[in-house]
Amino acid sequence: MSAFLTIDNVSRLFGPKLNTGEKIAVKLGGKVETRSVRAVSDVTLSVSKGETLGLVGESGCGKSTLGRLIAGILPPSSGTVTIEGVPVMSNGKKVTTRVQTVFQDPFASLDPRMKVGETVAEGPIAHGLTTRANSKAYVAEWFERVGLDPVWVDRYPHQFSGGQRQRIAIARALAMQPDLLICDEPVASLDVSIQAQIINLFLELTKRLNLTCVFISHDLSVVQHVSDRVAVMYLGRIVELGPVAQVFGHPAHPYTAALFGSVPKLVLDADELVHFDTIAGEVPSPLSPPAGCYYHPRCPLASSGCRTAPPPTTPVSDVRSVACYHSDQQLDRAKRS
Hints:
This protein has helices spanning 20-27, 63-71, 106-109, 116-126, 135-145, 162-174, 192-209, 220-226, 244-249, 254-261, 327-336, and strands at 3-14, 37-48, 52-56, 78-83, 86-87, 89-90, 93-94, 99-102, 180-184, 212-216, 229-234, 237-243, 265-266, 274-275, 314-317, 320-322. By secondary structure, it is of the alpha/beta class. The chain folds into two domains: 3-250, P-loop containing nucleotide triphosphate hydrolases (Rossmann fold, 3-Layer(aba) Sandwich), CATH 3.40.50.300; 251-337, no CATH class. The strands form four sheets. Strands 8-9-10-3-11-12-16-15 form an eight-stranded mixed β-sheet, with helices on both faces. A four-stranded antiparallel β-sheet has the order 2-1-4-5, with helices on one face. Helix 7 (192-209) links the parallel strand 9 (180-184) and strand 10. Helix 4 crosses helix 5 (135-145) and helix 5 (135-145) crosses helix 6. The mean pLDDT is 92.
């Protein structure tokens, strides 16, 4: 199956802004040392048309930054993001409406001073998807598709519940008729019962509209439920990529295994009803990541080679890859457990 979304060797660095004295020093020919955070580091992957890719990892691993790079909200420091060969950004500006984003907090992403109908209609009117005269009917159609009553289009965001606001945010994204949807923690701020409704709505709409999706979440059970494949990130790098059933069933990277093992589980025949394994050690500073494999200071399988050179991404099968020198050993451990 040919690639629809292609992310080719994409990196994103964040550096401090120069103060007045440093700017003067640079203009006078001086050198100013600054340290940058490499939030995303040399990420290469592709997503097929109609596929949902789950993106998981600890807080600060670069998931949301990668989502913003794909969406064209942030320009990459290097590399390219293309949809069917066409760049998402040109000269640092987004040049396509084919990719839209649903953010974590709909109360923050919706303008409190605008009626929700105006918010949903604003983009389609600007890009010629509907006219101002027909905008109310256009918005009403999308409200119905996400399970909202069209009579609510003249209300403001604060007049809705959290689940209703997220439905409005989904309607706003889909009203732009995108081919690719970036969902950045779309249910994290909602009650559990409402989460289930939004997830079911998401599954229904992606199937009906044949949407390609990148689904970013900390909730591994949600990712497992909605995704076709999953990519695991650690300190800006993709360490494992493959079909959901294979990665969740037998993780090939020690970090993936540790991440899945940290999920609390009910154990009815043990002394403790709830059991989980914490990941050893601390996440290294992205300002000064370790040499070699970034995970080696926390890895139980680390060897001298892990400390000197970063492991290349190698295939585990035709549909799965991992960046680890000890993936065979980890797979053996996973199959025995």
